[in-house]
Specification:
Two copies of one chain form a homodimer. Chain A is built from ten helices and 19 strands. Chain A is elongated, with a radius of gyration of 23 Å. The first copy, chain A, has 349 residues and is of the alpha+beta class. At the A-B interface, α6, β13, β14 and β15 of A face α5, β13, β14 and β15 of B. β13 of chain A pairs antiparallel with β13 (212-221) of chain B, so a sheet runs across the interface.
């Protein structure tokens, strides 16, 4: 198993999104020490593949980057590494590196993918860069994304979309508001409608997904004595894999319909598709068996959706508590690393 | 009477708030041509007083400045001056100048006040500057503020206050909003409460005032996938002269109470008191009689409140349609100027 020290070394390396050069070089160097791997570095992404003749190829992927913050205070505290990136996802990366460089025969071919820029806009993701420049490196029968899942297989992922809602009115002096129409007052009805949303739950492949709807920003106003003629909010919707992006946008437009006029505008700003659990795949079912725990739905979006777009069934499984990702108290324990190493090692061999 | 050409000349002079030097000098020069006036320039304010021994002193005041905009396109169009500042309040100023420099005996002493910076923050007003530096120049028994009122005496004025409402929540990932509390969703309830406000009307000194409550700006949001922990709005309340600023703030806090928590904050940002109609004053009643029209409440705040604070009963009466102030189609007609000149001339003499 990978020790806490290996994880701490990775946590202490500079790796904020867009600054993965050094950690990518470190990872590539360690992987190249294993002569049974073909290692390629594409930008700040590193892919290492076994070169045997087994008929099945498993892809194990993790991102190198972290969100911004102070990783310099990271430390071993008791049986845990504490610090930014500990569970999201340097712990899983250190296990991946240890298994990839171990001198053990596999019963499957394995592709190890270490990619850049996962924590920022999807368009800048290193995984998408690989998909564009070298899709051959990502080919495989099934994929595991080593995001922190607390040792439980978290299947599929929610889709996510962001829409801008622009509500119109007309200006007037605030002493004579009846000469105009207050766009912020109108926006109040939109906010109230969203606040009143009851999450929809739905079961896909035996896994229960819960949708969410949240306003993430709001703005509007002209000056202190003017009835504002425009107000604006941004809404984030997390949707289950039984809906496409188009389905989810249509549902959201319908949900807001009673609060909007013809002059108001709903714009789709950003979106990412959901991914189904793919629990019909034998390798993923075997992973669930090895984990010894009941599969559950992934809350949030992950790159399992990117693999699904490539036609590769994928799931989330990694070391560390997902609720501690990006949290001031982010950590990963020796037990979590050992358990992840045990299950992943058994799965690939 | 003052002609359209005199008004146009004033409209074409640079006079955006804070840039009244040239127009103040022009006004002072014209007033000094009348040997019966004592003229003083204090900053960009000009005060001219008759020096007779009549027992009553009437104060006639108007502001020299305009809001920003393009006054360079001003012109005479048919029987009207069209352009920024035509009715607010270069038309009234031209009549004041004409009456002040006319060689006619009055039966009252008259103080003509031309002041700077009325269209910006109250703390910067030239009238307050005079009040601080030379209160003796503003002394009088009654005051008329020549804001545009369409030839009708508009009595008193509404008070105005602006409060900031800050609503708290707690952050969470938008995929797990139940781990936090969305402050923008909470703000929706505040906006809805304000949008549902029914204006209070009240009769003071026989004049009906209608209050107003408007949200003038809103902001909040952290990032596209974070449940926001704080949201904010600014509310403008216009209140009748039967309430003090303190009364109005108390009422507003009470009105919003059901939508706010202990951690939320309501801050008073800015305020201006209301002014009662002072219709018990014989000079103001006589002005109403001369106008030949029924007195009505002033909608909006004016410096009649400043005179009232000095203990001087005051009212609004001037040339031009108040609804056209700051309007792209701002204008004042020859008939409006003539009518204002007739009533004001009769009042002072």
């Amino acid at each position: 198993m990978s020790g806490l020290d290996d994880t701490l070394a990775l946590v202490l390396m500079e790796s904020v999104s867009g600054h993965e050069d050094a950690i990518a070089e470190y990872v590539a160097t360690r992987l190249r020490a294993n002569p049974r791997l073909e290692v390629e570095r594409i930008g700040d992404n590193v892919v290492a593949r076994t070169t045997g003749l087994h008929k099945t190829r498993l892809v194990v992927a993790g991102h190198l980057d972290t969100v911004p913050g102070d990783a310099g205070t990271a430390r071993v505290e008791g049986d845990a590494v504490v610090g930014l990136g500990a569970c999201d996802m340097k712990g899983s990366l250190s296990v991946m590196l240890e298994l990839a460089t171990r001198d053990v025969a596999h019963s499957n071919e394995v592709t190890w993918v270490f990619y850049a820029r996962e924590e920022i806009a999807r368009a800048q993701s290193g995984l998408r860069e690989l998909l564009e420049l070298r899709p051959d490196l990502l080919a495989g029968d099934v994929a595991l994304l080593a995001e922190p899942t607390g040792g439980t297989v978290e299947a599929g992922c929610q889709g996510s979309l962001r829409v801008s809602v622009t509500v119109r009115g007309s200006r007037a002096h605030t002493a004579r508001p009846y000469m105009g129409r207050n766009a912020i007052h109108r926006l109040g009805a939109v906010l109230a409608r969203i606040a009143a949303y009851t999450p929809r739950t739905t079961v896909v492949d035996g896994v229960t997904f819960t949708e969410q709807l949240q306003v993430v920003s709001v703005d509007g106003g002209v000056s202190g004595n003017v009835v504002p003629d425009v107000a604006h909010c941004v809404v984030n919707h997390r949707f289950a894999p039984d809906r496409t992006v188009g389905d989810a946008v249509d549902w959201l437009r319908g949900y807001l319909e009673t609060t909007l006029d013809e002059t108001d505008v709903v714009d789709l700003d950003d979106w990412a598709p959901a991914a189904a659990p793919a629990m019909d795949n034998e390798h993923l079912r075997s992973l669930v068996g090895l984990s010894g725990r009941t599969v559950r739905a992934k809350v949030g979006w992950t790159d399992v959706a990117t693999f699904q777009e490539m036609g590769i069934p994928a799931t989330n499984f990694g070391a560390g508590n997902p609720l501690l990702a990006h949290h001031p108290n982010e950590r990963v324990t020796a037990d979590e690393l050992a358990e992840f190493s045990r299950v992943l090692g058994a799965w690939i061999s």
